[in-house]
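Q: Hi! First time doing this. I have a protein sequence and I read that you can turn it into a structure. Is that right? Here it is:
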Amino acid sequence: FGNSLARLPTLRRLNLSYNWIGLKADAGTIAIAQSLTKLLALTELDMSHNQIGHVADTGTVTLGQSLRSTRSLTFLNLANNWIGLTGDAGTASIAQSLQMLPALTYINLAGNKVGRSEDTGTMALGKAIPNCPSLRSFNLSNNLIGLTADLGTVMLGQGLQSLTYLEVLDLSGNWIALRGTAGSIALAQGLQNLKSLMTLKLGNNWISYKNGDGAKALASTLSSPTLQSATLLPNPLSAQVVQILNTGLDANPHLKRLSMILSDPNSIKEFFQTVPLRTTALDLSGRLIDQGNT
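A: Yes, that's right. Below is the predicted 3D structure, encoded as structure tokens:
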């Protein structure tokens, strides 16, 4: 199959999603990856919902190496594979390829195992993304970022600062802030430079687990004038964090959708005392537990 693909040098869009590539061996992933070096006109590649990385990291490493030839690539979807399961070499290889793909506007690595065994893959991604200045959508949701260390999250935050055209950022469903707050703070600093950001998803992490510093920093980013949708649940937010969050809400006339969790009576009271009067939609479903304090 890989050899057949190599005979299509004018191919611009390739969708191999929802197959079983990589399930029992890496040979198929390697063959397909090697064929990409001949597809110099390729602009869109979708290999999501396969088994890449399930057996070993070799196929993912080869895929990363081959992607460096696809200089016209604007769309890359590798979501819902097993990248990172057996090590970080594959994630690092893909990250290195991103440094050579400046035309990318869409990157989806959601639903993999990035960060499972170590932090070097996440660090490599953070180092690489400044080389994708046209990026509009970046999805790393449902990985294991932050599980083993916080430095990768720090580098992601630093890398975000260069993505001035980014509109959608999804880091939900990771382990951010489990090992410390430096990563959350770095993310907040990076987010402040995203002048085009419209959708931010940070739910299902460990923000506020260690202390409230990371949550406070991230709450302050809601004042971004372009932000229209923010998901913070189910990171439990204290009353002090909610106060900062509401200050950001008050400064942002465009935010249309907010999902969050209020974990104690004081935060509930603080939220409703300061939530902007112009609010038209509020999602708190399943977030409030009536313990006689409501």
